C-alpha cells in the first residue's frame, strides 16, 4: 500500500526495553528508561506496541516525567490500546496525556472495533489490527499491529514538512467516523484515513514548515 511504501523510507530505530523475566515481561521503570533513550537519540516518533494496567498515580510517578519530556520536545507518541476487550482508561502508556491511543479495527468490517481491542474515552483513533500481514511474512492480530499504521501515517506527514505539533491532531481529525455502541471510542474518534490527512497538508500550507 502507499502507506507502507512511504513509511518504509523513514529511518527506524528499534528500542527494546530490557526484560528481567524469562517470559519476556519487563517493568514500567524499564519503559521509562527506553523513553529517556529515545529522547537522547532525538527521534521524531515513538511507536509503542506494549501495554499494561497501572493506576493513574503510579503511571504519573513512573512514566510521567519521561513522557512529558517527550511531548515537550514535540515527539509524536503513539501507543496501542491493549487487547483485553475492555475500557483502556487504566491501560498505559496509552492513557497518558499527549499519547495517541490506537484501537484495532476488524479486517472483515473496516468500521468495526475488533472484539479483542480495548476501547473507551482514552482511545483517539482506530486502525486495522486483525489479520495484518507483517514484514516477517506472517499474519498478526492485535492493537500492537494497529499502532505502527498510525505511526507510519504520522511519518508521512512529517516527511511532507508538517510541523510536529500539528501531526496528531491532523490524524485524529481526518478520520472515517463510525458508530460503535458496544465498544465506543473517544468522541469524534474514528478510523485512520491517511489520505485525508495528506490532502489537508496539501490544502493548508500553513501546516507545513521547516522543522
UniProtKB/TrEMBL annotation:
Lipid metabolism recorded as keyword: no
Reactions catalysed according to its record: Hydrolysis of proteins with broad specificity for peptide bonds, and a preference for a large uncharged residue in P1. Hydrolyzes peptide amides
Keywords from the UniProt entry: Hydrolase, Protease, Serine protease
The enzyme's E.C. designation: 3.4.21.62
Superkingdom assignment: Eukaryota
EC category name: hydrolase
Gene3D superfamilies on file: Peptidase S8/S53 domain
Domain Peptidase S8/S53 intervals: 29-159
Gene Ontology MF: a single term: serine-type endopeptidase activity
GO BP, sorted A to Z: proteolysis
Pfam families cross-referenced by the UniProt entry: Peptidase_S8
Annotated PANTHER family: CEREVISIN-RELATED, PEPTIDASE S8
Family membership: Belongs to the peptidase S8 family.
Protein name: subtilisin
The organism of origin for this protein: Perkinsus olseni (Perkinsus atlanticus)
